[in-house]
Amino acid sequence: MQNIETRRAAMIARGDWQDRTLLDHLRHAVAATPLKPAIIAIRNGHEQQLDYRTLDHLSDRLAANLRARGVQPGDTVSFQLPNWWEFSVLHLACLKAGAVSNPLMVIFRERELAFMLALAETKILVVPTSFRGFDYPAMVANVRDQLPALRHVFAIGDATTHAEPFDALLADAPPALSPPTPDAVIQLLYTSGTTGEPKGVLHSSNTMLSNLVPFAARLGLGADDVIHMPSPMAHQLGFMYGLVLPVMLGATAVLQDQFTAPEMARQITHYRASFTMGATPFLNDLTEHVEATGLTTPSLRVFVSAGAPIPRALVTRARPALGAAIISAWGMSENGAVTTTLPDDPEDKATTTDGRALPGMQVRVIDAEGTPLPPGTEGRLQVRGCSNFLGYLKRPELDNTDPDGWFDTGDLARMDPEGYIRIAGRSKDIIIRGGENIPVVEVENLLFRHPAIAEIAIVGTPDPRLGERACAFVKLRDGASLSFADMTAYLADQRMARQYIPERLEIVTEMPRTPSGKIQKFRLREIAKT
Prior knowledge:
alpha/beta; Rossmann fold; GMP Synthetase, Chain A, domain 3; nine-stranded mixed β-sheet
């Protein structure tokens, strides 16, 4: 790991870290445009708007009430919420209280939730009373005995016996603010890895904002833009570019809590959104809807697609259909968007590359010995620069950053002579389905416990809409049987998130192996394509 003092000195000297927090930008927006809509959130078809003055006022109240309930600077506040206005207010309140924001995907169930909250030593958790018909307070009640640090659970929605009402956190309270320094940890975001358990990525104001400043400059984004966010804000893409970016710019955010292409198109058109961002399925479905209906999205200027490479044919269709620049981007929870194409790039760059590094970031492709490779040669992708994360929560041994600051992404890539990269695959054992990482090792470990399974290997198969789907290859025990329905029912019983469950099952008599006995997943991927 690079020495933090050395890194800070270099970042400050280059101007990549500006020693500001999001609260500095919020104060500017409140002073300049107090009545401007900061958030337009659509929940169950109903619109809710907060102007900048109200956003500031509510987050003040919430911060004071967090402190009144025992939250100290550096403590973790977790929230498992859709893209509701409360999500944004919670993060700003955590900043004002000096707490660490820990957003959690709404798809997580008991298994994931218990691990994540315990590792974070979460003091306060906020959930919906219900979302998409699921009872979140009841789920938390099932695991609360495993969470000794958890003091309070608050629910947004109807009253429930398992949680306190969220409105209690918005009551009048004496001011009690402890805003963080720009280098303090402000976000804990879990990402899946090859270790078989989620890793907690840590970011500061300096690491996060240093990504957003050059990102906005490259794409020409400013206070006059309306930023539409259909991606979950509990994912780094949604959090950084749907929550933090609009406040930093003093722009308006439009939050979509449940994705459908018709509703996305309606919101973009109705609210005159100029920018949106999401994984390939969002771009694919919106394009198909616009083509099928003849709808136009005249206000939309930029669509950034990240999370998986964009099929060339999709970009070719999306540009004329949406009338917007289609920007390819690559990044990770650990560093935000690292590379993007440019709005005026020729089509071949947008369709055959994942862009070039943002200012303040560097990328290189190396061989197994760490030697940089010439253009066009596939190798390991490393990243260095201002927005690289601070490390993993309580897991320093997992941080693949060398003393010079180069972070090993675990991805394989090629770089062209102009510095544009193309992700060629992943050396790490993760499947990216619709922009969401599937923790392959964790799913394999659960399935291996099934009495019918002797061996299990899960690989990704290409999918034109989601990027990849998961296929489980299984060798059965003698005399045993297993159907696809059996497998999915078993994983559901283990409280596995539905999106993590493989969508295909293949029974094999033997696994392909290396001479040393390791399963050859590349061969399974080829089999899965047939």
